[in-house]
């Protein structure tokens, strides 16, 4: 497991496309510049060596059992196999669930600043985004405004909420108490929660991710739809394989009728099945090493920023491989900040404003890369920001 190896990405890699021609370092798209585990690579080679890539048994009980065993092993989370469904991606699943769980015009709560496709898919389905902004503290940390959440969910025109856990981009790993309160509020207001937990495996040492459903009262669990995937953790997003856990019988039936029967979306492709099996069953050691590497990269970045850009505010990272960095002390115009980063410093981050107005003059920085790339990008950024305006 050499996480310092600099790997040449494919010509159609979204993250790196055009970067070399611009001499630009891309730390934006949320995939890793790390090689997958040996188990995944071997599984894909074995599948390729079959030389026939026909129909597979897909989401059979044997496959589902491997998926469930993984979440039992790491999170103590058990669910019936019949409650596990396939989606190519979690954003796709959220879009579908928004259609199944709400009517056009109804509101859906999101906790900004938050992963921007939440808003995009809500609005694309002709629903209304209702914001429950996170509370930012002086040290850059964030907490939920639970009183405001209760107020928003009490509105009869609001159908439910989307929870990001761990939170992208602010890096919070919600505590047991926070999750219990969120589920209790939704239950008392008779609202559902779509819980996006794709980053659940990527957690800093000393922190523990808790599945929302596991923290909820038994009566509340039918209103929680959990979205997980091997893609973010094991760097196989291009294979498109996510899993949706639905307990409520009515919602399960709607999913079957719409997604499986009408849209004919029911199982991963043969390569995704091979990779997911190897990820869930044989890649725990790689997962642990990856988390250690992310923690090391964060420590390097934090030390560098404290020395070179002392007025920047780096939010405490508890989970994900993303840093949330406030650069407003060095540049107060978000459009100019983007221009300075892309054109002058030749680094490509995600501009914070895309996650909500609260993210203006922030950068979301993907640190899942060799430290040599990360540090060069940070040096370029610092050199540009230290210039006089």
Automatic annotation (TrEMBL):
Q: Which organism is it from?
A: Amedibacillus dolichus
| Stored CDD domains | AAT_like (cd00609)
Q: Which cofactor does it need?
A: pyridoxal 5'-phosphate
PANTHER family (UniProt xref): PROTEIN MALY
Tell me which InterPro entries the record gives.
Aminotransferase_I/II_large (IPR004839), C-S_lyase_PatB-like (IPR027619), Class-II_PLP-Dep_Aminotrans (IPR051798), PyrdxlP-dep_Trfase (IPR015424), PyrdxlP-dep_Trfase_major (IPR015421), PyrdxlP-dep_Trfase_small (IPR015422)
The question of whether Lyase is a record keyword is answered with yes
The protein's matches in NCBIfam families, at most eight in alphabetical order, are given as: C_S_lyase_PatB
Name under which the protein is recorded: cysteine-S-conjugate beta-lyase
EC number, UniProt record: 4.4.1.13
Annotated Aminotransferase class I/classII large domain residues? 33-376
Q: Which GO terms describe its molecular function?
A: lyase activity
Keywords recorded for this protein, A-Z = Lyase, Pyridoxal phosphate
Q: Which Gene3D superfamilies match?
A: Aspartate Aminotransferase, domain 1, Type I PLP-dependent aspartate aminotransferase-like (Major domain)
- The answer to whether keyword Electron transport applies is no
| Family membership | Belongs to the class-II pyridoxal-phosphate-dependent aminotransferase family. MalY/PatB cystathionine beta-lyase subfamily.
């Amino acid at each position: 497991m050499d996480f310092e190896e600099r790997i040449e990405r494919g010509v159609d890699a979204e993250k790196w496309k055009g970067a070399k021609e611009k001499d630009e370092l891309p730390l934006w798209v949320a995939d890793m510049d790390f090689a997958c585990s040996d188990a995944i690579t071997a599984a894909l080679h074995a599948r390729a060596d079959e030389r026939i890539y026909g129909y597979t048994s897909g989401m059979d009980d044997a496959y589902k059992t491997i998926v469930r065993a993984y979440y039992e092993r790491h999170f103590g989370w058990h669910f019936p196999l019949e409650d596990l469904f396939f989606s190519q991606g979690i954003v796709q699943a959220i879009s579908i669930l928004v259609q199944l769980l709400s009517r056009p015009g109804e509101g859906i709560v999101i906790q900004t600043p938050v992963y921007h496709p939440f808003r995009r898919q809500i609005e694309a389905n002709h629903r209304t985004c209702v914001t429950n902004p996170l509370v930012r503290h002086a040290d850059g940390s964030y907490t939920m405004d639970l009183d405001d959440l209760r107020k928003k969910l009490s509105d009869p025109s609001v159908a439910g909420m989307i929870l990001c856990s761990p939170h992208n981009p602010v890096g919070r790993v919600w505590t047991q108490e926070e999750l219990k309160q969120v589920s209790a509020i939704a239950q008392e207001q008779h609202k559902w929660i779509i819980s996006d937990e794709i980053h659940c495996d990527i957690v800093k040492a000393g922190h523990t991710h808790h599945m929302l459903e596991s923290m909820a009262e038994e009566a509340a669990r039918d209103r929680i739809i959990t979205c997980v995937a091997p893609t973010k953790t094991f760097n196989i997003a291009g294979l498109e394989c996510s899993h949706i856990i639905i307990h409520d019988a009515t919602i399960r039936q709607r999913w079957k009728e719409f997604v499986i029967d009408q849209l004919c979306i029911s199982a991963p492709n043969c390569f995704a099945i091979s990779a997911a099996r190897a990820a869930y069953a044989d890649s725990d050691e790689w997962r642990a090493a990856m988390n250690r590497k992310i923690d090391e990269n964060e420590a390097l970045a934090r030390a560098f920023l404290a020395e070179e850009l002392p007025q920047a505010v780096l939010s405490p990272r508890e989970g994900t491989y993303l840093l949330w960095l406030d650069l407003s002390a060095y540049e107060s115009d978000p459009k100019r900040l983007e221009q300075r980063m892309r054109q002058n410093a030749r680094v490509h981050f995600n501009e914070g404003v895309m996650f909500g107005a609260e993210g203006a003059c922030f950068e979301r920085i993907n640190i899942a890369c060799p430290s040599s790339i990360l540090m060069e990008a940070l040096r370029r950024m610092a050199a540009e920001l230290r210039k006089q305006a």
